[in-house]
Design a protein that fits this description.
alpha+beta; globular; binds adenosine-5'-diphosphate; binds magnesium ion
């Protein structure tokens, strides 16, 4: 029991947090649980405290505030060998915009805190901010504050984003019900494929992956999109019972929805949306593409659940608005577990980490 000893040194498995690994160490979630239990007290105006993509507070009768913060550490969350400062700033902002999107909110204000080594050039900081502001520009998010410090070991970049949502319209991880359809936006696995390409020594493409597809995957990793308009639409039209953004990978993030909603899930592996580029990448690497879609993190797509009676309306409206939305499964009873239905019809427990590790039948 790691947390029964108060003075035991805490060591996050930083390797599990590197951008290359999709899933975060379970100990990180243990630590958050410990902080939440000990210090996260409820309050009358706190609609959602620790435990969702962002916090929600009832600041005014006609508006709820959404607050989220993220800390990125050099060589843990980003690597300067595979991304420019502009890319790093852009992705950092997207991670927070995506958390606001997952709550169904509108992003409004940004605060940034920076710890930088002494040798840092003004130009590097400029490029990082250029990236952050480029990600925020479509939403007219304004930078309103932050903090700056020296660092004795690499960069640390912390972003706090404040958004708003109409009262009673926020989307949470809890709320999914048995029978709801499970949906995702966009395509999955592209970001991990892009990162793998950036990390591989070879800079050229071989068939079946074309140079254009290679660039598309790299772009999806370095310049992801936050699905703010989908989140706002789902919340305003009351089309979803729960939502989360796919930052750690489908397999892990779906688990959060199931845990908070006290339900199980069945994912149809054949339905997982893949881009042609990701499919070509999997062919080239001779890997199973569903491994990428299940465990690949940092896609920043939304996963949400919609009750059966609203599904035709949601699917129709989504199509009309030009959103790519795919049904990937169904919410089932918690007692049935979190399952994957394979293309041959067999059902297996959905592995927490990797598709290759399918073990046992329910
Ligand atoms: P995300 O992946 O969306 O950034 P996290 O898994 O980091 O979310 O956080 C899950 C929840 O735990 C959120 O509600 C977040 O605010 C909270 N949280 C994470 N770290 C801490 C911390 N050190 N202290 C308090 N709350 C935390
Ligand atoms: Mg999140």
């Amino acid at each position: 029991m790691p947390w029964s000893e108060p003075h035991r040194p805490f060591r996050l498995d930083s390797m599990a947090l590197t951008a290359g690994k999709a899933s975060r160490s379970l100990r990180e979630f243990d630590l958050i649980g410990r902080i939440s239990r000990r210090y996260g007290r409820p309050g009358a105006s706190i609609i959602q405290g620790i435990g969702d993509d962002a916090a929600v507070v009832a600041s005014q009768p006609d508006q709820w505030l959404i607050l989220t913060t993220d800390l990125l550490a050099e060589d843990v969350h980003f690597d300067r060998r595979t991304a420019t400062w502009t890319d790093i700033g852009f992705r950092a902002a997207i991670a927070n915009l995506s958390d606001i999107a997952a709550m169904g909110g509108t992003p409004l204000y940004l605060l940034t805190a920076l710890a930088i080594p002494q040798r840092t050039l003004g130009r590097e900081v400029d490029l990082c901010y250029r990236g952050m502001m480029a990600a925020c520009r479509p939403y007219k998010v304004r930078l309103i504050g932050g903090d700056t410090s020296a660092s004795s070991s690499g960069w640390f970049l912390s972003i706090t984003l404040i958004g708003s949502v109409s009262p009673q319209r926020a989307l949470f991880r809890h709320g999914a019900r048995v029978g709801d359809g499970i949906y995702v936006t966009g395509t999955l696995g592209d970001s991990l494929a892009g990162l793998t390409l950036l990390q591989s020594a070879s800079r050229t493409s071989h068939k079946p992956l074309s140079a254009g597809q290679r660039q598309m995957l790299i772009n999806r990793h370095l310049r992801p999109t936050a699905r703010v308009s989908v989140g706002r639409w789902l919340s305003q039209e009351r089309l979803a019972t729960s939502a989360i953004d796919l930052s750690d990978g489908l397999s892990g993030d779906l688990r959060h929805i199931c845990k908070e909603s006290h339900v199980g899930a069945e994912v149809d592996i054949a339905a997982l949306p893949l881009s042609p580029a990701c499919r070509a990448f999997s062919d080239e690497k001779k890997t199973d593409p569903s491994a990428l879609t299940l465990t690949g993190g940092r896609d920043y797509e939304l996963l949400f659940t919609t009750p059966r009676r609203l599904q035709p309306k949601m699917e129709h409206m989504g199509r009309k608005r030009g959103f790519r939305i795919t049904r990937i499964g169904t919410i089932i009873a918690a007692s049935q577990g979190i399952l994957a239905r394979l293309p041959d019809g067999r059902r297996h427990l959905l592995p927490a980490t990797s598709y290759e590790h399918f073990r046992g039948t329910p």
